[in-house]
Amino acid sequence: MTTNGMEQAGSKGLWGLEEKLSSLLEPVTPGPEFVDALRLKLTQSPSVILETGKKKVIWMVAAAGMVTGALLVWLLHRKRDND
What we know:
By secondary structure, the chain is mainly alpha-helical. It has 3 helices and no strands.
């Protein structure tokens, strides 16, 4: 029976990837400015900006579709009356 990558990850660390990265990379201690900025971003609620431009486009597409549909119905009724 074969094993998938998740089962092998526990025993070999994704086929030795963890060991390779540990030998190639050295841990870095982040600077206090970075830590403070990150803490601030994580603890404050983000400001939400709503984009209104997309709503206008949706309304314009919907209106164009309705006008096109009404024109098509009018043309079909006109053609039927002429036959």
